Amino acid sequence: MSAVGRLLRRKFHRTAINRADPDPWGSQARLTFAAQKANKHEAWAENARKIKAGNRKSMLTLLEERGLVKDIAGGRQALNNLLTEKPIGAYVGVDPTAPSLHVGHLLPLMALFWMYLHGYTAVTLLGTGTVRIGDPSGRTTARSRQSENEREQNCTAMRLQLKRLWQNVIALGVKHEHKNHISRERQVLLNHTWLEGVPAMDLVTKLGSEMRLGAMLAKDTVRTRLEGDDGMSLSEFLYPLFQGYDWWHQYKTWGVQMQLGGSDQYGNICAGMEAVDAMRRHEDIPGDLNDPLKATYGITTPLLTTPSGEKFGKSAGNAVWLDKDMMSSFDLYQYFLSTPDTHVERYLKLFTFFPSDEINLAMRAQEADPSKRIAQHLLAKSVVELAHGANAAVEAEQVHKSIFAGRSTITFDKSALGGSITSRGIPAPQLSKEQASLLEHKLRFAGKAKPSSTAAEAGDGLTGLTVHLPESVVQSASDFSQVLLAAGLVSSKSAGRRLIDSRGAYVVVPRSSDTEDKNILNWSPIEPQHTPKDFVIQHSERFVVVRYGKSKLRICRLIDEWKFKRKGRVLPEEVEMQGETAPQSEQEQKKTVPSVPEAESAELRR
Ligand SMILES: N[C@@H](Cc1ccc(O)cc1)C(=O)O
């Protein structure tokens, strides 16, 4: 291994015990409150001196260098100054419209996490009240109404997820040797707790009378909606008022002077700044209203698109969920692993806490041998570590290595196949009734968002990879195209056939004798003359394991037709392209085969 590789490896495997914090158990906690406060001020003043002397980067510069800043509301210079002078509070709000965050939410959150690691108060706010109104920003139609039950399930799931995310951030802070600033604080707040108690009169007389209609009416979303047939409801139009009130509440209780959001939040953030000013005028808050050190500021993060121009984080029309039950660690790993070389450096800056010099090292190693995809692996593992935790990240990497090196630690024994396949052969844990219903809700949601594939199963490391198929599909199929379609790997039988013809799909060959090492998965390219029924792996249950490219793996569990129907499952429908039956040149065939990132297919052929 190269020196660079060794360095990155060491860094990656550093554990929480090997922390640089000289005061790991927080003797600070034993100091009196007054002493802590004095310490906090002194430490911050020292920090500000270093920044002003040019010996340390300001917080804003760091966020800009990471590529996390698109627009600043309130003035760059004033914000830079404020962030240098005071460990202010900042917040990111998310409405629980689904049971999980998706990768699109990560950018503003990453900026917030960076701030926390540098000693600011960071608030993640769950819009348990605002979700009932529905943010119209960037939408051409009103959101569909959620049932109370669904809303509650989403709130519970997202609240848990935010807590876990925070735990992972703290572990990452230790790993990346961030100083344990005494000024740092973090909160997960739920906005229904205050929004439900706001008197309507207050909203109208204090906020409503101050906020000007002109800016609200000029917003693109409002204009387009008003021009459309359905118009816009008053509640949607008033949404920014409630988001603004959130800010006010946090401003006075937590010193939150900054809001971060995706680029579609710029209008709401500006409205919020106006709302806080209005409330400051109405409530007697001491201090000069024009003092820039007391004002509010906003930052939006850029909107990411894939190289082909799609919204980032949408894979084939589906969001890339951060919840393990909705998208497995393995699938999340694969998603980031397929990042093109041209984008990987930018994504490392955006989605990881690696300092720039280590990203540069990784990029040097990457350029020296792009086929190893060192930077992509680093990115994929880091994102899984952030979203699912360190163990899941190590596991996803190991599963990847074992599958694509032809070796697998997946043991096809009874315990592993009892409920779900786990990479360690450990059965999925017992769930309480509440956990089971939450899980079911999440999976239903994931299923809804993925109409083209059969519902994924719950498991602990390889969720989303197991699909149920009726036994009859495998028994009657004369070639594998039908199985690839039923497993959700291709969108039509002819696409499946082309994939097979180009030797782009693989199947696990069942062991012919008990003496063969059951830890080795014997992958074979699927040949046109292969019949699926010859590839059934028989254990306590029956399976066929297929994949295409490096990342699309499906463990197809075969069940009786009636059971399949009873579970309410349907096979994915064919999406035939126009004129697909016409013979194609080899060049054209390549184009319509489901896209396997270039580098991956090249690697597979090697
Ligand atoms: N409106 C934000 C979520 C949000 C909710 C409440 C807030 O106070 C802030 C942000 C969104 O849809 O992304």
UniProtKB/TrEMBL annotation:
Its EC number is 6.1.1.1. It catalyses: tRNA(Tyr) + L-tyrosine + ATP = L-tyrosyl-tRNA(Tyr) + AMP + diphosphate + H(+). Transmembrane segments: none annotated. GO terms for molecular function: ATP binding; RNA binding; tyrosine-tRNA ligase activity. Keywords: Aminoacyl-tRNA synthetase, ATP-binding, Ligase, Nucleotide-binding, Protein biosynthesis. It comes from Sporormia fimetaria CBS 119925. It is an enzyme of class 6 (ligase). Residues 466-573 form the Tyrosyl-tRNA synthetase C-terminal domain. The keyword Nucleotide-binding applies. Gene3D superfamilies: HUPs, RNA-binding S4 domain, Tyrosyl-Transfer RNA Synthetase. The keyword Aminoacyl-tRNA synthetase applies. This is Tyrosine--tRNA ligase. Residues 575-606 are annotated as: Disordered. One of its GO terms (cellular component) is mitochondrion.
